[in-house]
What does this fold into?
Amino acid sequence: MSLLSPIHHTFAPHVDWQYVCRTLAIVCAPWRWQRGPAQEQLKKVIKERFHADVFLFSCGREALLAILKAIALKKKDEIILQSYTCIVVPNAIKAANGVPVFADIDEDTLNLNLDSTEAAITNLTRAILCQHTFGIPSDTNALLALCSQYDIMLIEDCAHVLPDSIEADLAFLSFGRDKAISGITGGAVIVRSPQIAEKLKKLEEHAHRLSSLHIFRLLCYPLVYFVARPLYKLGIGKFLLKCAQLLGLLVPIVSRTEKAGAMESVLHALPNACAKLALFDWTRLHEKNEHRRRLTSLYLEEAKKNGWKYPSGITQDMTLQKFPLFARGADEIRKKLKRQNIHLDDGWTGCVICPSSSNLASLNYVPGSDPKAEAASEKILSLPTHPTMTRKQAIHLIGTLAYIY
It folds into this structure.
């Protein structure tokens, strides 16, 4: 089982044979890559779910950038965000001329700590950005009360989860490769304010198109990984992925420029090709969520049985993007598991601004300023819950982990 079915977070977690067939059909119709009916259809289903205006952009980070442009963020305006996050989030704030201000987290949820957040508020604060880390819900009601008290906005970062409802003034979704649903790339802004919606409409209308070559490279991702994934342990899959990277066939999730702490202040439209894949995945959302719930429940039960520590805010009904454990020597455990074709390095380990190769100095993050986030990041060991992670694999992972830890 392990040889042909690697356990992983990042080897195209949404890609099954149905996804590949859809991708091949799209590849064969390049005249529909840029524009087509899927864009409006995707907007429609999102609008029906959240009862708000919806605007599409090429990725989640650009959806956040669009929000910050729409609220007319001025130079030196501050956005409070949690310190256990991905570098593309503060990058988007900087690209909009804002200043990212980091607050600490609660270990119970891996989300913003209310006291730390309030302490970070100044007369320059424009908004608080709340992240539902790994699908664990943030306390939006408490944050909304705080925002009301200080007359600032709340923005929901729903990159890790596709919730049933949105509580904040503004929110954005991501349709990236390992998100709740995947269009390979993509992002959506959800807004209820007619004034802000009008500004977002103009930003969406004037968004640049991604080149056909870029879209082709995106479409190569599920095809290449579907072939390489079962052959990875043999070395053939690893060789195929290396060749694809050298040939420029794969678009990196986070570019070198982004890891250095920079992002262009340019918005791009969501290609119809990616909207079509996201729309297809949307039709399977209930099935995917039920799968995530079952694995979350399984991991939770086994964690209690084995005495493994985990964020206490997790409940068995959550549709977690991944299940985080707190483990001493997490890096060493990952190394041991990797030898058995179990790949648990998801880029969210050993760093408060992920990935670990990110340039913290460019973001003005001072090491030691958010101790809970730093402590959590050092001992995080996440277990996969994605759609192609089978129950059989999960049981194998639990048994292996129980043996070595």
